[in-house]
Every structure is written in C-alpha cells, then in structure tokens.
C-alpha cells in the first residue's frame, strides 16, 4: 500500500522560510525521515504552490486504487480553500490534515480550517513529527 504526502503553497521553502516558526528542516528532510521511519510504506511525495494541482493529485490518488490515505499540509489554503475542501469531500480516501505549527496558537485567521470537517483528523504543532503522526494515523486506522 502507498501513502500520498501532499504539501501545498510555500512548503517548498521550508528551511529558509520563517525558521523561528517552522524550524530549519527542509521538505526533503521531512520526506526522507518518513521513508526511513516507515520502510514498509511506498510513499508518494508531491508539493505544489497551486490549488488546482493539489486537487488533481488528490483525484489521481483516489483513482489509482493502491493508495491507502493522504497526509496533507495544505499551507494557507487550509484557511480558505473551499475548492480543496470540496475535493477532499469528493473522494473516499482518508485525508489527515497536518501542520508543523500549532495553528490554534498563532494569528486569529489561522484558527479557522475549512478542511478539518472533511478530514479524518487533524495533527498540528509537532513540527516534522506531525507528518509521522499523520502516517501512523492512516496505518493504524486501515480496516
Ligand atoms: C502551516 C500553517 C499555515 O497557517 C501556514 O499558512 C503554512 C504552514 C503549518 O504547517 O504550520 O503555510 O500549514
């Protein structure tokens, strides 16, 4: 089985981007860490700055048949993308919403997620470990 790790806008800049909030770890470091920790999982990694590309990737994962779930850090799209929310609603695959930072401990506008309601669950505030916990959530909730 495979798991799609999907990252949205600005997450390509991890390591350089606001390190006081997101740390110095890069997205490649995070992805490498997942491969090392979960040798039994066939990961697919994808990042895009664009809403449409993320939505298309979700549909591809749904249609490909061997994907067992998605770990999604939607970046700022989390807070306003109804299109992304509708795409998550439109598929059967379990999607786990993850964030490096604790979105409830930051600016007011980050406290609203328009995707949480249609995700399986939310993990926020544990840095790179949020992704690891997201993968575990998918592995442990498979029936
Ligand atoms: C983020 C939190 C979002 O509010 C922000 O827009 C991001 C990253 C996180 O991982 O903490 O781009 O999703």
From TrEMBL:
GO terms for biological process: amino acid biosynthetic process; aromatic amino acid family biosynthetic process; chorismate biosynthetic process; quinate catabolic process. The active site is at 22 (proton acceptor), 99 (proton donor). It comes from the Bacteria. Gene3D superfamilies: Dehydroquinase, class II. This is 3-dehydroquinate dehydratase. Belongs to the type-II 3-dehydroquinase family. Pathway: Metabolic intermediate biosynthesis; chorismate biosynthesis; chorismate from D-erythrose 4-phosphate and phosphoenolpyruvate: step 3/7. Homododecamer. Pfam families: DHquinase_II. HAMAP family: AroQ. It comes from Chlorobium limicola.
């Amino acid at each position: 089985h495979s798991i799609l790790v999907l990252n949205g806008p600005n997450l390509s800049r991890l390591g350089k981007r606001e390190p006081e909030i997101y740390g110095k770890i890069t997205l490649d470091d995070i992805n490498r860490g997942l491969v090392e920790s979960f040798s039994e999982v066939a990961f697919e990694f994808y990042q895009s700055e664009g809403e449409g590309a993320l939505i298309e990737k979700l549909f591809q994962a749904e249609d490909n048949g061997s994907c067992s779930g998605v770990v999604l850090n939607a970046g700022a799209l989390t807070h306003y993308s109804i299109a992304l929310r509708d795409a998550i609603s439109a598929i059967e695959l379990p999607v786990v919403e993850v964030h490096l930072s604790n979105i409830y401990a930051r600016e007011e506008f980050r406290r609203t997620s328009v995707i949480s309601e249609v995700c399986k669950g939310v993990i926020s505030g544990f840095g790179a470990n949020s992704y690891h916990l997201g993968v575990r959530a998918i592995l442990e909730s498979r029936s």
